[in-house]
rRNA methyltransferase 2, mitochondrial (Populus trichocarpa), 232 residues
Amino acid sequence: MSGAGTPDFFYREAQRLGYVARSAFKLLQIQKKHKLIAPGSSVLDLGCAPGAWLQVACQSLGPLKNGGAVVGIDLKKVKVPPLYCDSRVQTVCADVMKLPKNQVRALSPRQKGFSVVLSDMCPLVSGITTRDAALSAELGMQALGLAVGRAATAHLDEIRTDRLLNDSVCTADDNGILQPGGHLVIKLLESEDNKEFSRICKPLFRKASWLRPKATRSSSREIYLICQGLLS
């Protein structure tokens, strides 16, 4: 695999097929393996810039007549890519770390929450491994807390909550925005904290597993936690 920033197979394929970034192939592999997004799904994409996952998510919904919705949130203003996306896709420019769950839930169809939550959020990498991993864990915990609400805190007894638990997880709103039976994908940087994420998620979901997509650059420490079937 080529180094970061160097055009490689997936970069060229993204250019050829009209995806706005090579990261599309990461979600394509996740979708092929786990089939998280079904026709009619409501999908929340956290850290959606530049929009490649919006494209794949909308593709996975099937034809417009199938219904469904895709909402992307990012610190940057993201224009919905014209290829593969349709009227079911919208984007919001906001800081997920400061966004109350009720505001996020209000973006879902009939304000009933989402059936799939995707977090491709990543901190600005400093090159300091421990610092980057800690920031990644903080973003991951934010995504988890947003998805499942206070349920995440029930499994934090032995975990370093000062590093993994953001105050927004423990708001008065006990419920997360992920529907029962729904799926959650969280990108993290490889670290010891990842074991704790597994320990939190496994009691909450029917299945929790790790995946490093083939499209991930060899120099990257990215890994994805795939949580399937939120238990009610």
Notes: The mean pLDDT is 88. The radius of gyration is 17 Å.
